[in-house]
Amino acid sequence: MRTRNRYGNTLRAALVGAVVAAVVVLAAFPVIAAVGGNMILGKPNTADATTFLSGTAPNSNLRIINSQAGAPALDLRVQAGSPPLQVNSAGWIRFLNADRLDGKHAAAFSLVGHNHTGVYLPLAGKAADANLLDGRDSASYAGAAMACPPGALVGYGRQGPICSSRIGSVAVDSTGDVGWYTSLVLDANGFPVISYYDATNKDLKMARCGNATCSAGNTLTTVDATGIVGWYTSLVLDANGFPVISYYDYTNEDLKVVHCGNATCTSGNTLTTVDAAGYVGWDTSLVLDANGYPVISYYDATNQDLKVAHCGNATCSAGNTLTTVDSAGDVGRHTSLVLDANGYPVISYYDYTNEDLKVARCGNPTCSAGNTLTTVDSAGTVGWYPSLVLDAAGNPVISYWDTTNDDLQVAYCGNPTCSAGNTLTTVDSAGMVGRFTSLVLDANGFPVISYYDHTNEDLKMVYCGNPTCSAGNTLTTVDATGTVGYYTSVVLDANGNPVISYYDSSNGDLKVAALIR
Length: 517
Fold this sequence. Notes:
mainly beta; 2 domains; 34 strands
């Protein structure tokens, strides 16, 4: 190509056609092609139309060299949000080193074989090698294009997620035989708070963890030690973050509630007997209404009925309404309660007479009228250990144990009363599985379920691939150290990471598994 010299060198306007609508630094001087004329090096140039450079050179059509150490050979500047460069090929570019991959630093990814005991990748520092993310070749990173188990997702590649193992589990309380009937919530900091039964001292206890994984700073408190108390616990936090717990008083055979006076239940607690009419208070499930008043479902063993208590104040000390919701046979064991958008109770439970899974949808806040009772699954002996949530449409989703087949099952109801359009799915049938289920829905409305694998004596979890768990499910053994996984309770943290409380039967410990995704 012929050039003329005015201020050192001059190229024809066609020279810079490879860069479209951007400012180009050529040989470390800002230049832009002049329309229909020559480009002047070392001086500003302007162009309001696309300039083309085409040819059949055996290598590149344009090469820019800057001999100044540390200075770039090409500087592209555009308006915010505009791409600085456009290409029409997906071909691999050798020696192209990136600071981020899909907007994530290298620290968001793990090395091959990474198991959370090694060193994380550094945030800063860019290597001068080729074809790298912060100086590392793609072979250094864990494989993609797979579905991560729950608690295994540590990064994303363009082709899919990057997986690793869970963080692990810790024994939160190992003083005696402790950890029966666990119920778990997270406080405002994302730290677990757990109610449970101390079988050695026959007391109700509460653990407030000092961090998200319960690895340090935990506070363990005996909340009620009057007689044999603390079976079938269910825990929520009030607006101040103070625990409220429903439970069974075995000595007096009563339903009780404690409203703690502070975050750790160390002082100011109010203990109340809510129902003392016969043998009452098995299988409790507790929520707070819009006023912060407890609403509790439970089993009346004397009359073999499903009952609901709607407290008249925050401590259940006055104005309580006790209602028998279902009395058709021996019904009401293994209750799980939520409130719908109107504040009306919705309860899943086991019908012992017919060996069925049932749902009660109450017609008002106290379940005194307008209730709808529905048998959801009657195929064999089904419905033990149900756990209930409502989807975005207010339709029940229930995990439970199919005793006949020893399987984990999920029922996805087709309407708010489960009277039509229900989808029943066997989620895990590998051995004797599905006891002690606990269910939450993720941000997509997909069920996440913790449960006990009786065959292998392990804690397991399933992360469903769709709302009905009919496809794409990922089953994970969370803890296999001994006989573990009784009395599970699962929640998701602010990032969608599962946290599970459960009982370690081998060691008699309360344990928590905190997973990362």
